[in-house]
Specification:
Shape of chain A: globular
Structural class of chain B: alpha/beta
Distance between the termini of chain B: 42 Å
Largest sheet of chain B: 9 strands, mixed
Strand order of the largest sheet of chain A: 1-2
Number of domains of chain B: 1
Shape of chain B: globular
Number of helices of chain A: 25
Low-confidence stretches of chain A: none
Radius of gyration of chain A: 24 Å
CATH class of chain B: Alpha Beta
Order of helices and strands of chain A: HHHHHHHHHHHHEEHHHHHHEHHEHHHHH
Number of strands of chain B: 12
Structural class of chain A: mainly alpha
Number of strands of chain A: 4
Number of helices of chain B: 13
Helix content of chain B: 25-40%
Radius of gyration of chain B: 22 Å
Mean pLDDT of chain A: 96
Helix content of chain A: 40-55%
CATH topology of chain B: Alkaline Phosphatase, subunit A
Largest sheet of chain A: 2 strands, antiparallel
Order of helices and strands of chain B: HEHEHEEHEHHEEHHHHEHEEEEHH
Distance between the termini of chain A: 25 Å
Oligomer: heterodimer
């Protein structure tokens, strides 16, 4: 087993927040360059070589087919499964960890559901948009989302028109205001919804090329004409896409949006209970505003707040984070010979944990707060996941049980070496003691055959421990 | 009492008693609460007029040139209203008198909103004009808690719904079969249980500490009672809603002291692609709903002790939009199903489609009038009502429960 460098507890904290879980490689890098430089590098993902992960992704041949071919294939179920499989590979194997954390964050904030008809066919391409823009300006991300085929389909804007004797579809307009930007239903009125819905009439899909299309002849401003909408008024007449693009920029820079986005980032990266009035949130909001919604700058500020520094291990890993961290910590190998079978197997785990990638039950996405994921039976599922990983029961996934904690001669050494591989450092004293009790040994008892046989249980218990569950 | 001892007693109490011949152990000795309520929440807003169709009003057909259900797709109930064809499995339950519909239901005017999330939050809180960290069912369960509740007293299928919040022992169940520890081969569940107990007794995050106690207790009871499946899988079908109702039916039939269960059924936000009466999203959703409810009703051993309430955050606009769908509206529909329901009728006040409010069917019955009657006549007492729905003073019951 490789010796792991000793890092400060702050470094461990940073790693637990900006990645989906520590690995020996990350520990080495952080020990060499320091956690600050590690985060800086993570904020510039294109500077990080990710060819090893990309090679693995190549196995998902179906997902690289052009959208029209996917639509024609009509294999929605298969595509849906493989989207999940591919996202797990990325979360576990990409060296651009913060980028994947942010892709998960944004695809949850601008949530679509892949099980709605045809949405899955659009996601391979749309997901790349989130990856390209994960650290760009929020306003550009918002525009990309508004024009993405998956969002146009999921929230129905693709069929919204104002040139016939029927009202436009209000679905996208409402969720744009309530969830994607302002974040509060009391920040806008029903008349705002109707006006915004008119502005987006004609934002649709060309179903020949399966690309975004603006049909100017479907577009009428109607009640939006000359109206002050949340401090902005359309400048151009009917039939101009510019009105929609400008209101998206305006909304992205609206003070309520700044608060909503920055508070959500702080809840995710710092503490789900942090108040919107907390000085750290205010600091992050100020940077968001001064940088014209630049996400890289906003995050860089967030990671330097004292609230971030002082929040180690207060959060519980969300279910997908827990799965990714377990697979990373155990250095799990995936059998990608049949990506469909692999994807189904790994999706089963997320189904059990109630957090299936791209299948959040509402446009609100999955909850951020820990309490929403913490109840008795969820905890049982989490424990069982730990035991499934330890006992090699996750389909098409293998961990090398014998290598975890290998070379130990004493009971205490075995528990510590397992801790070091799975957590990057030994378990805290109390938890360590309970595992020794489980072994029926004290720290300096020489390992015997009976204890060696309990290795899988020890691995499982370490993954099930409160320390591993936290981030 | 220390945790382990409490858990042990709980396990003994939950052990099957058939061998002793002593009959059923009495769980939940509190008042009326041997009655179980199952709340089915249709997330996304059910199109009430498309499910229970005002068959004779021309305005219905005129407002929906593309998606109105023509008469050939309707099942007449009482001459005035007809069911969407996909709800056919419910017709027998209605005819037997076990199923009632309440029209024009929804949030009171102080709470009215067209936001799904706000409307759901306010409805599940059960208060006027605001949400809360406590839900109406949570308050009801907490009110009648005796400090050492059965683990399965209040459950949410798939997740603990907001209605159950405030009852700290609410349990989420995904699959009854998952309520077991499945240890690696080198260890027994008993050994794991002991080590997990000590590992979590000192967990720094309070939520982990609290829930672990509950989780270990749940594991005890479900293992000792060998919780599993007794109902027929085929009756409930393979779709999610049916499978979830089956879990509730199993828990009720196992007699584990279940007082309240919530089931979420999503996918009702049909702004487009509504479909026709024979095919499409609305047809499919309604069919799942009807098949699930019917299978549930037929598989409950003692139907008189179980009531299902079906509700949704609001109704939808009468007028069809440019996407062959409908946008957010107001007046909704509730369904009440059970062996002791005064069913076989459509109740509530129907204003008629010529009396719309801003394009919507108005709300004529506060949803709490239905839930309030349930609390007062089945789950608790009049005294409980003021604390479950504070500020709600209507008592002109619809006599859904005799």
């Amino acid at each position: 087993m490789s010796s792991s460098p000793r890092l400060s507890s702050y470094a461990h904290h940073v790693i637990s927040r900006v990645t989906f879980g520590q690995t020996p490689e990350i520990l080495r890098e952080v020990s060499l360059v320091g956690s600050g430089s590690y985060v800086q590098r993570q904020l510039l993902p294109n500077s990080i070589d990710d060819s090893a992960c990309n090679n693995l992704l190549g196995a998902f041949r179906r997902l690289y087919r052009p959208t029209p071919e996917l639509v024609a294939s009509n294999q929605q179920w298969e595509v849906q499964n493989e989207l999940v499989g591919m996202s797990v590979i990325r979360a576990v194997h990409s060296r651009r960890q913060l980028q994947e954390v942010m892709v998960d964050f944004w695809s949850n904030h601008l949530s679509v559901n892949a099980s709605k008809r045809r949405v899955a066919f659009m996601l391979p391409r749309d997901n790349a948009l989130f990856r390209q823009r994960a650290f760009g300006r929020f306003e550009d991300l918002l525009i990309a989302s508004a024009k993405s085929l998956s969002m146009l389909t999921y929230l129905d804007n693709r069929s919204s028109r104002a040139d016939i004797d029927r009202p436009p579809n209000e679905n996208y307009a409402r969720e744009l205001l309530e969830i994607h930007t302002l974040g509060r239903p009391d920040a806008f009125t029903e008349a705002d919804v109707k006006a915004v819905a008119h502005i987006f009439t004609g934002w649709t899909i060309d179903t020949g090329s399966w690309s975004f299309q603006f049909r100017s002849n479907w577009n009428r401003l109607g009640p939006a004409q000359g109206r002050n909408i949340l401090g902005w008024t359309p400048r151009y007449p009917d039939g101009y896409i510019e009105n929609g693009e400008w209101i998206l920029r305006h909304l992205a820079r609206h003070p309520a949006t700044a608060r909503n986005i920055c508070h959500k980032l702080c809840r995710h990266f710092i503490d789900d209970a942090i108040s919107v009035d907390d000085p750290a949130v205010q600091q992050v909001v100020a940077r968001y505003n001064s940088s014209y919604t630049d996400i890289r700058a906003t995050l860089a500020t967030l990671f330097t707040t004292s609230a971030f520094r002082d929040s180690p291990a207060v959060r519980v890993k969300r279910p997908n984070e827990l799965l990714f961290a377990m697979l990373r910590a155990t250095n799990a190998e995936f059998n990608l010979g049949d990506v469909q079978r692999f994807s189904r197997g790994i999706k089963e785990e997320l189904v059990r944990l109630r957090q299936i990638t791209y299948e959040a039950p509402s446009p609100k996405g999955y909850p951020i707060d820990d309490a929403a994921w913490m109840d008795a039976s969820s905890l049982i599922n989490r424990w069982n996941l730990a035991f499934r990983v330890a006992a090699n029961r996750v389909e098409n996934t293998r961990i090398d049980t014998a290598s975890i904690g290998s070379g130990a001669r004493l009971a205490g050494e075995l528990v510590d070496r397992i801790g070091i591989q799975l957590l990057g450092r030994p378990l805290p004293e109390a938890e360590r003691r309970h595992l020794l009790t489980h072994l029926g040994a004290s720290s300096d008892t020489p390992l015997n055959a009976r204890m060696q046989r309990k290795r899988a249980a020890l691995i499982g218990l370490t993954l099930a421990s409160p320390t591993f569950q936290a981030r | 009492m220390d945790i382990t001892r409490r858990r042990l007693l709980k396990a003994i109490a939950a052990a099957p008693v058939a061998a002793s011949g002593a009959g059923q152990i009495a769980f939940a000795a509190d008042g009326n609460s041997s009655h179980t309520v199952v709340v089915v929440f249709l997330r996304g807003a059910l199109d009430s007029v498309g499910a229970l169709i005002p068959s004779n009003e021309s305005r219905y057909y005129d407002s929906r040139p593309g998606i109105a259900v023509r008469r050939e797709g309707q099942i007449n109930l009482d001459g005035q209203f007809a069911l969407h064809n996909a709800l056919r499995p419910l017709k027998d339950l209605y005819d037997q008198g076990d199923l009632a519909f309440v029209v024009g239901t929804g949030l009171d005017s102080a709470s009215a909103t067209r936001s799904h999330f706000d409307a759901q939050a306010r409805m599940e809180a059960g208060l006027s004009g605001r949400s809360s960290s406590e839900g109406w069912l949570g308050r009801h369960l907490a009110l009648r808690a005796n400090g050492d509740d059965d683990v399965f007293r209040g459950i949410g299928i798939g997740n603990v719904s907001d209605a159950l919040r405030g009852y700290r022992n609410a349990l989420n169940i995904n699959d009854l079969a998952n309520l077991r520890l499945r240890p690696p081969n080198d260890v027994t569940a008993g050994e794991l249980d002991r080590t997990l107990t000590s590992l979590y007794a000192e967990a720094r995050i309070p939520e982990l500490r609290n829930q672990s106690d509950r989780a270990l207790e749940t594991l005890y009871v479900s293992t000792v009672r060998n919780l599993g499946y007794g109902t027929s899988a085929s009756a409930f079908g393979t779709r999610r809603f049916g499978r979830e109702l089956r879990q509730v039916a199993e828990l009720i039939n196992a007699d584990l002291g279940l007082c309240a269960a919530t089931v979420d059924f999503g996918g009702w936000d049909l702004h487009d692609s509504y479909g026709s009466w024979r095919i499409g999203a609305m047809q499919d959703q309604l069919k799942q709903l009807a098949l699930g409810l019917r299978a549930f009703h037929e598989n409950i051993r003692d139907r008189r002790k179980v009531t299902v309430v079906v509700m949704s955050e609001f109704g939808r606009r009468l007028e069809e939009n440019s996407s062959y769908g409908t946008d957010h509206g107001k007046g909704g529909l509730m369904m009440v199903l059970g062996g002791s329901v005064n069913g076989g009728r459509v109740t509530g006040r129907w204003p008629g489609l010529d009396n719309l409010n801003d394009g919507d069917l108005p709300v004529t019955t506060d949803y709490r009038l239905v839930l309030g009657e349930l609390i007062s006549r089945r789950l608790g007492s009049d005294g409980d009502l003021a604390r479950v729905f504070p500020g709600f003073n209507e008592r002109n019951w619809l006599n859904l429960f005799g």
